[in-house]
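Hello everyone,

My group is preparing for a crystallization screen and wants a predicted model to guide construct design. The compound we'll soak is zinc ion. Before spending weeks at the bench, it would help to have a computed complex in hand. I've included the protein sequence and the ligand's SMILES below. Output in structure-token form would be ideal because that's what our pipeline reads.
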Amino acid sequence: MNKLKQLLYMLWLKLTGKPAAEELGFMCCFCNESITSLDPDPSDINVIANIDKPKDQQADQYFYCHLQCLKNKLHKNTLEHFVLDDPSKQKSR
Ligand SMILES: [Zn+2]
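Reply:
Good plan to model first. Here are the tokens for the complex, ready for your pipeline.
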């Protein structure tokens, strides 16, 4: 992502609290490469700080990633429970 896009992205996040990936493109938070829209990508990670605290003490932020980059970073014990790339293992919503 070039410098101008980074600045616009930070401004968009600050003003809206929402990701602007549709407008600026998807960049992977792990490898910093662009993400092509090809199943199962792009994916996002929503991190909520202070998840055990009341909502007014929480903060959240979205990060985009390649699903494979996320899997590469997860511990093997967590990977045993990873179902995002196998729809047959997912619970229906
Ligand atoms: Zn990646």
